[in-house]
Amino acid sequence: MKVPFFDYKGYCKDINYSSLLEEVLESGFLIGGSVIKQVENKIQELTKIKNCVCVGNATDAMEIIFDYLNLPQKSKVLVPSHTMLATASAAKTAGLIPVPVDVDVDSYMLEIEQLKNCDLKNVSAVMITQLNGIVANMNPIKDFCEQNNLLLVEDSAQGIGAFNDANHAGSWGIGGCISFYPAKIIGGLGDGGALITNCDELADFARSVRDHGRGKEFEAVNWGRNSRLDTLNARVILERLNQIENLIKKRRRIADIYYENLNILEIEGHLNLPPRFSTKSSSQSTFQNFEIKANSREELIHFLNAKEISTIKQWGGYSIAHFSKLGFKISDYPSTSELFDKLLLLPMNHLMSEENAIYVAKCVLEFYRD
Question: In angstroms, what CA-CA distances link 78 with 39, 104, 120, 151, 361?
Fold first, then answer.
């Protein structure tokens, strides 16, 4: 049985894209129009966050947040070591200094215990990445930031539909982001993103900046960029947003199969399965990814590949701290170094069948039992 990590060809046949294209062409709106607002309203309804502003991609959303904050140049921003390079580059683009911090070995996220050990000299902000469909323990992090006069930003690109108790990813800090990359829970036909915030002033700023910094009457009110989500992508995203409960339900069923079959390997010490719930919360993961910590990872990858099962090392297997050409030394981050020697993403998406998941689990069991 062949199990791709993500079946992009299947994804391109997953819904009736032709009818959505015809609908958009009939409307005459290729950029802008009511569909953009419908997506924003739907996300506001889902997340209970006051404002959603669609943009070209999640990286733009993070950069716009830092543009708005206008933090002191060359001040530091603490970022988790386990995150996309874009998290750090958003701070760097704003003239700030991103500083990776070792993550929690269980949640793989930056949690309050790691923050407490940080040197806060010249630090102006903290950026938390909500990872793999779960959310960090944010209340003490928010309190910590307020007590130390630090701005709090969330990279919630992987967090659509993910909560920690009553609060959605992206709701604790000044703002967060959502990615509509095709392999995300809510994906489009290419890049796309949104900025989410309870701050009306940031939302107004983002609406201007995404459209070259123009105001309501097309006068320039900010220095801006072109970061407008196109209408066809928005229509595809809206179609998937209307199915989000079922999409997450499918992922949770695949995860259940993995847990049921692989729990014995965790008991025996061969691997660690990802958290089922957000940190110190009863909120279940949406399973944007299923990231295990595996002994003999390289051999496992080779074995699964021979069984026609594709796996991925998240971020290409590199933490931010690995990037020596950007000025970091992985030897300064022993926990991250050890973690990234073991982390591996198993196939996880709504296109998988239960038979696919059973086969993957069976092969992982076979590897460790032979």
Answer: 31, 14, 9, 10, 37
Q: Which band of pLDDT confidence, cut at 50, 70 and 90, is reported for residue 47? A: very high
Angle at 187 between CA 9 and CA 255, to 5 degrees: 85
Q: How many CA atoms lie within 13 A of 305 on its CB side?
A: 8
> What is the arrangement of strands in the sheet containing 290-294, beginning at the earlier edge strand?
271-272, 290-294, 343-346
Specify the pLDDT at position 218: 86
Would you say the pTM of this structure is higher than 0.85?
yes
- The whole-number pLDDT of residue 354 equals 98
> How much of the chain exceeds pLDDT 70, in percent?
100
The fold of 14-241 is: Aspartate Aminotransferase; domain 2 (3.40.640)
Displacement of CA 238 from its chain's centroid (Å): 19
Has residue 184 got a pLDDT over 90? yes
The H-assigned helical ranges of the chain are 8-11, 17-27, 34-47, 58-69, 85-93, 112-116, 138-147, 200-209, 231-241, 244-267, 297-306, 334-340, 354-369
The architecture CATH gives domain 244-369: Alpha-Beta Complex (3.90)
pLDDT in tens, 54-107: 999 999 999 999 999 999 999 999 999 999 999 999 999 999 999 999 999 999
Q: What is the DSSP string of 334-350?
A: HHHHHHHTTEEEEP-ST
How far is it, in rounded angstroms, from Cα 210 to Cα 68? 12
If pLDDT is split at 50, 70 and 90, which confidence band does 370 have? confident
CA distance 91 to 86: 9
- DSSP assignment of 68-95 equals HH-PPTT-EEEEESSS-HHHHHHHHHTT
Query: Which residues have CB under 8 Å from 217's CB, separation 6+?
Result: none
State the CB neighbour count (10 A cutoff) for residue 369.
10
For the chain, the domains span 14-241, 244-369
Comparing 137-146, 213-222, 277-286, which segment has the lowest mean pLDDT? Answer: 213-222
